[in-house]
Amino acid sequence: MALVNEHFLKLPGSYLFSDIAKKINTFKVTHPKQDLIRLGIGDVTQPLAPACIEAMHKAVDEMAKKETFRGYGPEQGYDFLIEAIIKNDYTPRGIQLSNSEVFVSDGAKSDTGNIGDILRHDNSIGVTDPIYPVYIDSNVMVGRAGVLQEDGKWSNVVYIPCTSENDFIPEIPDKRIDILYLCYPNNPTGTTLTKEQLKNWVDYALENDTLILFDAAYEAYIQDPEIPHSIYEIKGAKKCAIEFRSFSKTAGFTGVRCGYTVVPKELTGATLTGERISLNSLWNRRQTTKFNGTSYITQRAAEAIYSPAGKEQIKQTVNYYMSNAKIMKEGLEAAGLKVFGGKNAPYLWVKNPKGIGSWRFFEQMLYEANVVGTPGVGFGPSGEGYIRLTAFGEQNDCIEAMKRIKKWLK
Ligand SMILES: *Cc1c(COP(=O)(O)O)cnc(C)c1O
To answer: Which ligand 1 atom is the nearest neighbour of the CA of 246?
Structure first.
């Protein structure tokens, strides 16, 4: 008899986006003639940069010839890509990394979900709330999150609220946490931390021997030169933080699949007897055992992002999404709504008027304005009373959606 991992049974059955899909389907059946504008999706819509396409075609041709064919590559990624990453994403910010500190992967969801493999099951975890659901659910699956309580929180998770009351700046908790997830620029709130605010967390981690798992998937959307792109811009962070990056939102790779994770050599965790163990060597062991590398064609596409043409092309796409964000922010504010984010991230976090709950506001906007968002409470208890809109849509749709919302709220 094969016994199942019963921790999976603790996960709430229905998933946020399937609940939303059901509500949209109901609307469509009862309103077959109305067209909907979807601003709920967390997926990009613009095609890959021509530089990436060109690199992929070339790589495919190499695979077609015996002399240039490639089989298994290094599990950690090819040096050509790792070197491009270090040279472009880190060296210009004064961060020195060696090739063996960068692990190329098939994306940040896998890595943020899998990193728990190298950490004991009984660590305490902390998250800012609301948050990207993968961080908590992947801990639930190994029993690390504890049990789900009536207030919608897991018993072994410290929730650090980020709301308009504290300007979305997470307050340093008064107890220590073993593992802390930070995501900046943030999904879902679209907010950022300044260098000073991020430094407070690095200092907390160094004082409390906390491991920070820093998700920088939206780094490319930062417009303000004062906002840090990497946690390693903060002194001491190499001793306490792992950083996750993704080409998904940076370069439209959601369907191509490529990202990378930085695990510095000086970063350690402890054994029960207090011995310090390199997390870099544990992650290397984990990856070489359970992961067989990102495809060569994909890594060539990722490398092309760093070519002069590639850089320019992906910047244009980011600018397109960020001009959507601007149109939306202005439109929503003109409709009398309070809007957060959207300045250094492709997400707008909208406070529902008159204290209306997330799901109620979602349904009203669906039925009365025919615009789809994502209920904030789906990202955690502190998301109640907000709705998330994304800037990944078509510009004309964004403009039209703002007209509809303005008319609806008048
Ligand atoms: C989209 C997203 C990612 C990227 O995931 P991939 O697996 O690389 O596509 C990572 N973290 C957050 C918070 C995201 O929203």
So the answer is: 8
Helix (H) or strand (E) holding 52: helix 50-63
Residue 3's contacts (CB-CB under 8 Å, 6 or more residues apart) are none
Residue among 203, 212, 197 nearest 135 (CA): 212
3-state secondary structure at position 92: helix
* Identity at 174, one-letter amino acid code: D
Buried b / exposed e over 53-88, threshold 16 CB at 10 Å, is: ebbbeebeeeeeeeeeeeeebebbbbeebbebbbee
pLDDT digits (tens, 9 = 90+) for 187-222: 999 999 999 999 999 999 999 999 999 999 999 999
pLDDT for 14: 66
Which residues, listed in sequence order, are joined to residue 268 by a DSSP beta bridge? 278
Q: What are phi and psi of 96, to 5 degrees?
A: -95, 130
Query: Is the CB of 214 inside a 6 Å radius of any atom of ligand 1?
Result: no
Rounded Cα–Cα distance for residues 42 and 166 (Å): 25
Cα-Cα-Cα-Cα dihedral sign, residues 305, 306, 312, 316: positive
Average pLDDT, the chain: 97
247 CB contacts (<8 Å, ≥6 apart)?
253, 256, 258, 259, 302, 305
DSSP state of 65: S
What is the position in ligand 1's atom list of the atom closest to the CA of 247?
8
Within 13 Å and on the Cβ side, how many CA atoms surround 395?
11
The residue whose CA has the least distance to atom 11 of ligand 1 is: 217
Give the model's pLDDT for residue 242. 99
Other Cβ atoms closer than 10 A to 366: 21
Return all residues near 383 (Cβ < 8 A) that are at least 6 apart.
129, 130, 188, 358, 375, 376, 377
Determine the distance separating the centroid of ligand 1 and the alpha carbon of 183, expressed in angstroms: 10
In sequence order, what E strands does 200-346 have? 211-215, 241-246, 259-262, 268-270, 276-278, 338-341
Query: For the stretch 302-339, what's the b/e string if a residue is b when 16 or more beta carbons lie within 10 angstroms of its beta carbon?
Result: bbbbbbeebbebbeebbebbbebbebbbebbeebebeb
